[in-house]
Amino acid sequence: MVEEITKGKLEEQEFSINMGPQHPSTHGVLRMMLKLKGETVKEVKPQLGYIHRGIEKMCEKLTYQQIIHLTDRLDYMSANILNEAVCLTVEDALQVEVPERVQYIRTIMGELNRIASHQLWWCAFGMDLGALTTFFYGLRDREKILDIFEETIGARLLLSYNVPGGLMNDIHPNFQKKVKEFITYFRKKLPEYDALLTGNPIMQQRTKGIGMLTKEQAIAYGVSGPSGRGSGFSCDVRIHQPYSAYSKADFKEILYHEGDTFARYKVRIDEMWESMNIIEQLIDNIPEGNYTAKMKPVIKLPVGEYYTRVEAVRGEFGVYIVSDGNKTPYRVKFRSPNFSNLSALDLMAREQKIADLIAIGGSMDYVIPDMDR
Amino acid sequence: MRSIINYLKEIFGAVAALFKGMRVTGYYFFHPKEIVTQQYPENRATLTMFDRFKGEVIMPHNENNEHKCTACGICEMNCPNGSIEIISEMKVNEEGKKKKVLSKHIYHLGMCTFCNLCVKTCPSNALAMGQDFEHAVFDRSKLNKVLNKPGSVLMKGTE
Questions:
Q1: Which string of DSSP letters, residue by residue, matches A79-119?
Q2: How far does B119 lie from chain A, in Å, by closest CA?
Q3: Across the interface, do B121 and A158 touch by the CB < 8 Å criterion?
């Protein structure tokens, strides 16, 4: 044994270890089988199935109103947007025109959801790199959004606010005032994020040039959302195929062309500014009207296949429903952004150090229940 | 020589950036009024939840111990998790008609996901969401609650 070490035989060996499913820096129950050579990552094999609940199969036994509360539990950080995706699919199939008020509120809620999610991502990303302070600052600002949700919806994380045809209930009288207060508050606080983490040279050295993903690779692997836009892949569904009230707001797509971890970081920070822009344009113009369209108590979709895509926080989220005319769907398939993004992890992490793998994983902003479903 | 200068530059740059971050944290150290942390178990007496907060499903009763539930079973049908169970019996009322009367409205809090569908679909507005959120108990069976109070009857005029 001693001879082998002195001869350097062990040094040349590759060895494999498991990261997760309970590793504190893997954001949940994701198991990654790593092939390492020293500290260099040679291969990453993600193993899924630790939080598989069979949500797509469960949907086949539930009515369209009941499916909503399961989509909360996919990507719990963008619950409102996923709810909206199912609602849009059902409304599209029934050809129901939802009131304009509903569209505005859905958009505002979705953007608030996006900011809240990016705030938590920023907390967790700092934590991944060893900066504990970020966690407190991000959560402090996220609490303001959760309070807005709690006042109008009654829930903080698993919202279930959108229902086919409209909303669960009307917005709270304080809603507009509180959102405006939040925007002015957060416009002051967001530069703090830059002072604490973005400008830090330690953080920049750990992210710049790490985890490269070219535009071609991003398109080939189906990496969408902020992770894809960090590679210059223009994939924002809100711009290319506007739904709800996005066509009424004027905003631009955030694109960075570097394709490294820092670019993905910058996309998310800039998206928070852009989301605030969208909310500011819409919040004063919420039209009067009903908060729900007239719907039958039992929804039966006409026979056929329906697909809708929305821009969830982590990328393009698609809902595919096959209906056979009953009150429950025949088959439901969710196209979740995290699953596609995960497939590119091996590509990005090869020949990087094991500590960089954590930074790359953090910059991809994984939510494990969304991969496994 | 140049590499040494660059090396030193990097070090001093990093220290300067650390102080930039420390200025933010230092600001909050000297402005304790801007800290938003709530001392939770201590502030229980003054803590109020929002009116719409979904803590649990409750059945409001009026002062005469009357509720509005007609035991129609729509909430049971709409619940995605089967957390509502309705046990009813047929009784003959004063007019001599047979009618369904609620005997037990069982609510399994442990299975509930607070999706609000039961409250939303109830045709007689018999259910509501309560604001209580401290549900921890030592025994799982304590999470199975009977929502209608003992001895309660249907409110007059509710169909």
A1: HHHHHHHHHHHHHHHHT----HHHHHHHHHHHHHHHHHHHH
A2: 10
A3: no
Mean pLDDT by 10 residues, chain B (159 residues): 86 83 84 81 86 88 85 87 87 78 87 88 88 89 86 75
Cα–Cα distance between A69 and A53 in angstroms, integer? 14
For A67, the token pair is 């499916």
CATH number of B56-154: 3.30.70.3270
| In chain B, where the domains are located | 2-34, 56-154
Query: Quick one: tokens of A102?
Result: 């509903």
Q: Cα dist. A135→A149, A157, B102 in Å?
A: 21, 18, 50
What is d(CA A320, CA A322) in angstroms, rounded to the nearest whole number? 7
What's the CA angle centered on A87, arms A342 and A313, to 5 degrees? 30
Is A221 within a domain?
yes
Written as one letter, the residue type at A208 is: K
Answer yes or no: is A158 within a domain: yes
Where residue A263 sits, what CATH number does that domain have?
A: 1.10.645.10
CA–CA distance, A174 with A148 (Å, rounded to integer)? 9
Q: Which residues fall within 8 angstroms of residue B45, CB to CB, at 6 or more apart?
A: none
Q: Mean of the pLDDT values across residues A84-88?
A: 90
User: Cβ B14–A152 below 8 Å, yes or no?
Assistant: no
**Token code pair at residue B106:** 């069982």
- Residue A151 included in any domain: yes
**Which structural domain range is residue A330 located in?**
55-372
The 3-class secondary structure across A325-358, one letter per residue, is: CCCCCCEEEEECHHHHHHHCHHHHHCCCEHHHHH
**For residue A239, pLDDT beyond 80:** yes
pLDDT tens digits, A158-191: 888 888 888 888 888 888 899 999 999 999 888 8
| Coil, strand or helix at B108 | strand
Query: Which residue among B21, B24, B50 places its CB closest to the CB of A151?
Result: B50
Rounded to the nearest 10°, the torsion over CA B150, B154, B156, B159 is: 170
Q: Which residues does chain A have within 8 Å of residue B24's beta carbon, measured at their own beta carbons?
A: 137, 192, 195-196
Report strand pairing: B98-108 vs B144-146.
antiparallel
C-alpha A334/C-alpha A75 separation (Å) is 11
- ipTM for the whole predicted complex goes beyond 0.90: no
Cβ atoms of residues A301 and A64 within 8 Å: yes
Percentage of chain A beyond pLDDT 90 is 8
Structural domain count of chain A = 1
Strand B56-58 and strand B84-92: the pairing is unpaired
Which residues are paired to A37 by β-bridges? A40
Q: Which residues of A touch B114 (CB under 8 A)?
A: 154-155, 158, 160
Residue A205 domain flag: yes
Nearest to B80 by CA among A268, A100, A70: A70
At A263-306, the pLDDT tens digits run 989 899 999 999 999 998 888 888 888 888 888 888 888 898 99
CA-based nearest distance B27→chain A, Å: 11
